[in-house]
From TrEMBL, chains A, B:
Any single Pfam family the record assigns to this protein: LacI
Biological source species: Paracoccus contaminans
UniProt entry tagged with the keyword Transferase: no
Residue ranges of every copy of the HTH lacI-type domain listed in the record: 5-62
PROSITE patterns tied to this protein: HTH_LACI_2
One function term, GO molecular function aspect: DNA-binding transcription factor activity
SUPFAM superfamilies for the chain: lambda repressor-like DNA-binding domains, Periplasmic binding protein-like I
Keywords: DNA-binding, Repressor, Transcription, Transcription regulation
Descriptive protein name: LacI family transcriptional regulator
CDD domains: HTH_LacI
Length: 338, 338
DNA sequence: CTGAAAGCGCTTACAG
DNA sequence: CTGAAAGCGCTTACAG
């Protein structure tokens, strides 16, 4: 493996000192009163040699690393994928070096990944959807790294969340209204997916109950099916509960929709199902059963996140809830009311 | 910002030399014949201090960085999201440090990101779906970094691809067979999405034509609609071409499906459309028009990719095409034949 | 206008 | 069984 060119190689070729090369290449040459002629020569030779600075050496020497870390449960998911993508773009726009790693909802991997971010000398770590954000915040604080929670809240660092209660409330109101309109009378409403104890599920469940209460109704406990976030257990548990159409379903995440649809496909009357989903997917929106989706406002969340990052103040108590965007599904032509 | 603990801090507290601390913490203490008692003490104190090694310093000093880079067009996409996620998992399993960055199909960003990977001292760069992979490979080679292309091929580095021709051939055969069965006679077949000149579109188009030729048919040039990979131009151009049902559509990517569905929704008879899609999405599979999807074999592709990475040999000519997995869409109960 | 020099935090051959 | 020391490639105050 041919050794990469260093500032010493460039210095030799340009017949200047390594220090001068360094300041030309990192743009501080004017401040150091190096002549433009020298700067041009050094830049030309560096380009010819395909020189690329060694980040390890450069970051070691500099006072600040400008590294900003993010851990995220998954990439393979519209919501978290959009978060990761937008995070990178916004970090780069600020001259920061984003380092993202995906922790697959594994608590140990989350913690190890956070440690790794400390090792990368991250100045700030965005902890997205972590199962135990406070454990990570403690690790960060011990190392002098700012932590900010995203998507799921913690007590030891500020949190930027979706307004899960409000989104679920509005979604459930729609579900109540549309099922009554389509079927001519109240039908059983189910809440499917997620895990009780998880903050987001708790908040959405609260919104679900509140909307039912507004309508003078209450939820049947056996219609709350929360076996987690993957689709197989959702399909299994919902299948055992044997729902009968007509009915309405609040799907707590698009992954839950995958499970729900397997059960719905087996029903004698799939057209007797109406569904609302917390989270958004363009194709799920085209399902004939879908009436609305609560799209989490990724841009709004990240705007708030970077406002916290840009401002130094980060009170641990700060907690921002960003409203979701309610997307009505197109009403398929073939679907009759009632 | 409190300074992070260093090996010097631990050394002082444990009353040993910094060198001894270093070898205890990186596991080479047995080789250096340091006593277990000393090692235990150092480990305990390091844990108490929340010590985390400084990667910049450690990687600078070591001979190898163990960093492995990947550039990827998007995270917010089932296919590329799955690639990024699996890449991280497999790299970690090998003790490597994956660094991924998302380049949003921007040629300049791709090149800048590749430069950045060289600066991170990456030993290898996986170039995924790049618009100009050879420009990046040249940069890598100049810096002594191995490059491997994924998803789109280049001439200067080995390439791991989907077997686009074969996948499109099988998908089109299905489309021919199912439209003839459902409508009782051959109907117009359209190819929608992607860009002519792009390797993958070219190969899939070749498969499309080959399957038509097998059936003794040929494609109408005006039925090839390839205005790129985003959904808005697909909807616009397909809308202008005003397709009439009954018809069959080969959608070149799930993003194309989004555009196609906007047009289909406006047709007098959406049920007169059959669609096959290159690429997979669980919800797109549930569209009533969808008959089959070609799921790219991400696991198979990455297995091959890491076989190249693990083995030192990387002949630039090497080109592997991994077969796609054909997923038949569930046949909706409400859909009548003919 | 530019160079010599110290030092970032680590690793590892070498000496004992 | 352990320490002293050199050096990875850079940056930047300091001296001239």
């Amino acid at each position: 493996m041919p050794r990469r060119a260093t500032i010493y190689d460039i210095a030799r070729l340009a017949e200047v000192s390594p220090g001068a090369v360094s300041s030309v290449l990192n743009g501080t040459w004017a401040k150091r009163r190096i002549s433009r002629m020298t700067a041009d020569r050094v830049n030309r030779i560096a380009a010819e040699q395909g020189y690329a600075v060694n980040f390890q050496a450069s970051m070691l020497r500099r006072e600040r690393s400008h590294v900003i870390g993010m851990i995220v449960p998954k990439y393979d998911n519209r919501y978290f994928g959009a978060i990761a993508e937008r995070f990178e773009t916004m970090a780069r726009a600020r001259g920061l070096f984003p380092v993202i790693t995906c922790t697959r909802r594994d608590p140990d991997l989350e913690f190890e990944a956070a440690r790794e971010m400390v090792s990368y000398q991250a100045e700030c770590l965005v902890v997205t959807g972590a199962t135990d954000p406070d454990r990570i915040a403690a690790l960060c604080h011990a190392a002098g790294v700012r932590a900010i929670n995203l998507d799921l809240p913690g007590r030891l660092a500020p949190s930027v969340l979706s307004d899960n209660f409000d989104g679920a409330l509005r979604l459930t109101r729609l579900l109540v209204r549309r099922t009554e309109a389509d079927f001519g009378a109240p039908v059983p409403l189910w809440f499917v997916g997620g895990r009780v104890g998880d903050n987001n599920t708790t908040e959405r469940l609260r919104g679900f109950h509140a909307a039912l209460a507004e309508a003078g109704r209450s939820a049947e406990p056996s219609h709350i099916v929360t076996p987690g976030y993957s689709s197989a257990p959702v399909a299994a548990e919902l299948g055992r509960a044997a729902p009968a159409a007509p009915l309405g379903i609040f799907a707590n995440s698009t992954i839950a929709v995958e499970g729900v649809m397997r059960v719905v496909a087996g029903l004698p009357d799939p057209a007797g199902v109406r569904m609302a989903c917390f989270d958004w997917d363009p194709f799920a929106a085209l399902l004939p059963q879908m009436i609305a989706m609560a799209r989490q406002d990724v841009e709004g969340m990240l705007a708030r996140l970077f406002a916290l990052i840009d401002g130094e103040e980060c009170p641990a108590a700060a907690r921002t809830e960003i409203p979701c965007i309610l997307e009505l599904a197109p009403r398929p032509s073939g679907r009759a009311a009632g």
